[in-house]
Amino acid sequence: MRSALEEKDGIFQAVCPLDCPDQCGLLLHKEQGKITKIAGDPSHPVTKGNICNKVRHMGARIYDEQRLTVPLKRVGPKGSGQFTEISWEEAIDTIATRWKTLIAKHGPQSILPYSFYGNMGILSAEGMDRRFFHTLGATQLEQTICSVAGGVGYTYTMGGGFGIDPEETIHSKLFIFWGINAVSTNMHQVALAQKARKNGAKIIVIDVHKNRTGVLADWFIPIRPGTDSALALGMMNVLFQEKLVDEAFLAKYTTGAPLLREHVAQYDHNTVATITGIPADDILKLARLYGTTSPAFIRIGNGPQHHDNGGMTIRTIACLPALTGQWLYEGGGAIKGNSGYLAHNKAAVQRPDLRTETHGQRVNMNQLGSALLQTENKISSLFVYNSNPAVVAPEANKVQQGLEREDLFTVVHDLFLTETARYADLVLPATSSFENLDFYTSYWHHFVQLQEPVIEPYGQSKSNPAVFRLLAQAMGFTEDALYESDEAMIAQALHHPENPALAPVTLEALQEQAFVKAQKPRLFPGKLLTPSGKIELYSETMKQDGYPPLPTYIPLKEENGKHELLFIPGPNHNYLNSTFNNNATHQTLEKEAVVYLNKTDAAKKNIVDGEMIRIWNERGECYLKASVGEHVLPGVAVTQGLYREAPGTKQLVNALTPDRLADMGGGATFFSGRVSIDKKTY
Ligand SMILES: Nc1nc2c(c(=O)[nH]1)N[C@H]1C(S)=C(S)[C@@H](COP(=O)(O)OP(=O)(O)OC[C@H]3O[C@@H](n4cnc5c(=O)[nH]c(N)nc54)[C@H](O)[C@@H]3O)O[C@H]1N2
Ligand SMILES: Nc1nc2c(c(=O)[nH]1)N[C@H]1C(S)=C(S)[C@@H](COP(=O)(O)OP(=O)(O)OC[C@H]3O[C@@H](n4cnc5c(=O)[nH]c(N)nc54)[C@H](O)[C@@H]3O)O[C@H]1N2
Ligand code: SF4
Ligand SMILES: [Mo]
């Protein structure tokens, strides 16, 4: 059979490569070797042919005339965007020569890779790159920017990235979308909820912003940022008090229920109302509804964990389903993330055994600015791929200052001349995911998909694994592992006896069937991966790690109290983090960047709807248009989207965000910063 690449025309199955839980099956329509249409694949068991608008328009990005086609060398000052074309040979040779000199002078820890999930393909995001940087002995990047705090918190309670199979939620009678803007960020979970709604299910949304998801709720509950654990504890108190708990489930499958019962008495609904801003009666109503509806499902989002107390908040919310034994019902329980089910053999793919250095230097990716500005253990070279830190990392002004360093040798591998790439000494053109072989594991549904190349590499662009093989050669590395093929690496990744759920997923199966599902029995009855094998309402491990062993409300850090607003700059509907922010089609879809303010806060500063305002704190400033109303509570300012930082605009929201770390896992605290607002003055 001819491969998709060899066929000039036809319709080919593909997978969405973006960092989105839905991981949709796609159909690429190809004419004369070019993708002419991107549609959903109706045969995908979960995503069923529906895809979001941004990906329906992704063809415009693949063939955007701004796409990089050749390697570039900087000829103007850093940040100016002045480059000249060079050959791949010269580019790779320049990097290797420079790195050899740096390693000889300062050691391999002077080189820092910076990457995230711009492409979710396992080989593209955490494959040959890891093997290469392990062999090199570079500083290790802690990949903490997204969901780590909540991931660690959830794991304390539940033992790992295990929730329910989202396909089950068709049976749910109550949905709580808790700190997730699912209409924009997990649309197929919303589709499932809408189906269940036809059978009488109710949808509750708990959020700091009445956004697209809040608007569709049967009941929208606005909450003060960073107070969700107090709400969850208040609900638990009502459940215990009013005997709405499942005593048999608690006794059999949890630890510490009697301690928790006593502990939550302090979170009576009046106290919780004062903390959260939610009326006491609503807290009672919510707890009773949750306590009397089965199956009840909580979709735990990323919002509440991008805070100082994010880990503890998710750990706390994750305790709720156990109280009413929801895990036993089809469609009951929760999903924070489901990556546990599809865990592949990371050691085989990444080969940490290739690392022999002893410096042990690590950099938390949330603190890139500080890392680039540190004088001890200086970073002399930065290699960026799958990420756009100039826009996505907090304390953006510090990051920019770091990127401006004349003595920093920066290489960026991307499809576009991103804001970060403008500071690079060398820019390398990357292929899109449809140009490569890779495999994809969702962190929401339970299917794995293979992507085979459908179109030829764009211009001279190369995939991530291809670039690292070239670099390995130029560095003179002789390890066989650095030259293995993509096929071989996929087979190694999928051979993972420690995760029997992955047994049906082999390279051959993926080549035969478009989607292969992991085989994991329901969580309960069963043994969790917590130390006790149970849901840990009381966690001895947390105690040993220096946290309260029972779920607890811990307020956000005070910061500078003189700034009156908590600033919540989340993602938007038509971009994927900063991806698409430079593509004209998506810019048109997303329109203008605004900041949502409560009318009382706006009135205090004489700010009217539609007016450009200045948002500022000690870290930086931003100019955005005010959207004044009641979409947010007083004391809260919300923006959506990581807009392109173009000359003449100042809408880089991360100029304002803190690079403090969350309570767990070194996570980001994008949403715990404070700002002041003013009328714009010229
Ligand atoms: N369209 C689109 N989809 C995306 C992305 C994108 O950029 N655009 N990004 C992808 C990525 S990488 C991720 S991690 C996910 C993130 O997607 P989500 O899990 O939806 O996370 P966020 O959008 O960061 O925040 C979710 C919600 O939390 C709210 N929130 C903030 N603080 C609090 C709080 O203290 N309490 C409560 N209850 N709510 C709070 C915000 O207002 C927001 O509505 O989406 C993925 N999907
Ligand atoms: N203010 C604020 N900041 C945030 C967030 C927020 O909610 N608010 N969310 C945070 C979260 S949850 C996340 S996950 C991060 C995401 O931050 P990033 O991971 O940096 O995500 P993107 O902005 O999508 O940038 C991905 C880049 O990878 C490139 N790319 C795509 N495919 C490939 C490939 O195959 N090879 C190479 N070399 N490059 C490729 C894309 O062109 C794009 O420039 O942002 C974080 N930043
Ligand atoms: S971004 Fe999400 S919803 Fe859109 S096509 Fe990709 S996986 Fe599906
Ligand atoms: Mo993320």
UniProtKB/TrEMBL annotation:
Protein name stated in the entry: Molybdopterin cofactor oxido-reductase
4Fe-4S Mo/W bis-MGD-type domain segment(s): 9-66
Lineage, broadest ranks: Bacteria, Bacillati, Bacillota, Bacilli, Bacillales
Superkingdom of this protein's organism: Bacteria
Entries under SUPFAM superfamilies matching the protein: ADC-like, Formate dehydrogenase/DMSO reductase, domains 1-3
InterPro entries, alphabetized: Asp_de-COase-like_dom_sf (IPR009010), MoPterin_dinucl-bd_dom (IPR006657), Mopterin_OxRdtase (IPR006656), Mopterin_OxRdtase_4Fe-4S_dom (IPR006963), Mopterin_OxRdtase_prok_CS (IPR006655), Prok_Mopterin_Oxidored (IPR050612)
One of the record's GO molecular function terms: iron-sulfur cluster binding
Pfam families membership: Molybdop_Fe4S4 (PF04879), Molybdopterin (PF00384), Molydop_binding (PF01568)
CDD domains: MopB_3 (cd02766)
Keywords, in A-Z order: Iron, Iron-sulfur, Metal-binding, Molybdenum, Oxidoreductase
Family statement: Belongs to the prokaryotic molybdopterin-containing oxidoreductase family.
Cofactor(s) recorded in Swiss-Prot or TrEMBL: Mo-bis(molybdopterin guanine dinucleotide)
